[in-house]
Amino acid sequence: MTKLFDLTGRVAIVTGGNGGIGLGMARGLAAAGASIVVVGRNTAKSEAAVAELMQARCKAISLTADVTDPVAVEAIMARTESKFGRVDILVNNAGMSIRKPPHELALDEWNMVLTTNLTSAFLCSQAAHAAMKRAGGGKIINIGSMMSIFGTSFAPAYAASKGGIVQFTRSCAVAWAPDNIQCNAILPGWIDTELTQTARRQVDGLHDKVLARTPAARWGAAEDFAGIAVFLGSAASDFVTGTAIPVDGGFSVQG
User: Which of 58, 82, 101, 180 is the most buried (most CB within 10 A)?
Assistant: First the structure.
């Protein structure tokens, strides 16, 4: 019988994998046996993440790349296949936000957020598709947001990009099912990361509002994403595709 959560011999690329949710997922995938390719713009931070993973006896490398650049994305796939022989799992986690109401957001700011959060996922998924077909199938995990569901006054570009992530995930799930590629999205709630620490400084009362609405009565942590990464990256989810799964301590079910 297949070991449902065993990723031994599998290779995972995690964009934005050098911190926060991305590193939390990389740790989970590594603990289940996968080799990890950490992709990020900050070389020192990525190398530190890889050093941590290797201390846990994981095979890992870091690649410094701009995932909004098609040439760089193709190079990521080529380097991964050259090093590890295959691509099995892609986690599209790279992202950013600019917190302004719609009437104050400049066009270049809008484009920057959409390109970083949504276009990068398109480019990486498209590039991974051929490699996954060569491997006999694969798993694509896209990072959405609670803002795929809820509206906010201060993050119009971020919300639009994450809503787009969910619909893009569904399209890929349908298109690539014949290739044995499952595509799913994760919708993080309010997670304690560098991104949300900045948000708490910029948005008055955010911390208390989040705690008041979250049944788990805490902010999420990076380690809360290890299990969902293993599930969506493993044989356990072979009949799960096109979904958007909240990981939010119950935030989205609380009225």
Answer: 58
At 113-136, the pLDDT tens digits run 999 999 999 999 999 999 999 999
Supply the pTM of this predicted model. Answer: 0.95
Instruction: Give the domains, in start order, of the chain with CATH numbers.
Output: 11-249 (3.40.50.720)
Q: Is 158 a catalytic residue?
A: yes
C-alpha 108/C-alpha 91 separation (Å) is 26
Exactly one of 84, 154, 158, 176 is catalytic; which is it? 158
Mean pLDDT of 191-195: 85
pLDDT value for 1: 52
